[in-house]
Amino acid sequence: MKKIKGPAIFLAQFLRDDAPYNALGSICKWASGLGYRGVQIPTWDSRAIDLDKAAESKTYCQEYQGVLKDAGVEAVDLGSYLQGQVMAFHPAYAEGFKAFHPENISGPAVTEWAQDQLKKSVSAAVNLGVKNISVMSGGFMWHMIYPWPQRPEGVTEEAFSELARRWKPVLDFADEKGVTFGYELHPGSDLYDGATYERFLDQVDEHPAACLTYDPSHFLLQQLDYLDFIRIYGSRIRAVHVKDAEFNPDGRVGVYGGYQDWLGRAGRFRSLGDGQVDFKRMFTLLIEAGYEGWAILEWECCIKSPEQGAREGAPFIENLLIDVTDVAFDDFAGGETDRGKNRKMLGLD
Question: Average pLDDT of 292-308?
Fold first, then answer.
């Protein structure tokens, strides 16, 4: 059995314009000081990385790795979530997603920009020695998540066919470079659960680069069995977010949330240990599935501060890591293999 590595931390939620959170070296030293050994890099944030330079220059990436090493961490995954989200979206969301892409483009130019960004992420991953890029898929159908009014025949097939058409060249490029995309199955994108992921895989012919970044919190909030998910799709998991959540419905709100802010919703993201995710069982199942990547803190909580969440997160993950055994617990009662004895025990001689 293989061992999970960690703890690592996704920097996106901690970057801000004041020290030590405003520059790569200082935020990584802060993270290392809390006990993190790896960082997931948000590729859209210039405070964390210059994606153009990382894609083009091995020298830049060598210097980048030097900064991380001096801080006591290593790059374990790239996060290109915003670029992935705008690969495809319904026009109703165009205004909301303007912050995710350059403001001077629209329509097909946004998709072209996103494809270029994702290919640059692949090249940067190669130069940095990173094997996975975590993304959201984008999509066309989120406004149709509930089947009312009725979805016309063929509309779902058309949506996933077009989504696959846009992603296929990027997936092919990643596969050529030995890199995978880890789709984080996320509300707001058309890939948000196992069924939608399977539908996408069908459209891209089970593409080897179309893998998963596993996050139990999004599954708990939609009341999907996040543990059984590992049993079903474990062979496709390439990155893991360790992120907690809780679901406490009442007589006013349930899964859909009633347009409440995060504090008032039945489903809420929480700091590690404050929610309902069974992390011990989750880590056991990941080991059994053969996962050997990193356990990455993604902190989101509507109550606790990010500083406390990060401070508590590293030891929490550390305590979940399993030192995989290389001996059987009942070896003391065994003996040397003896075929003759085995056949005699079976009544064959």
Answer: 97
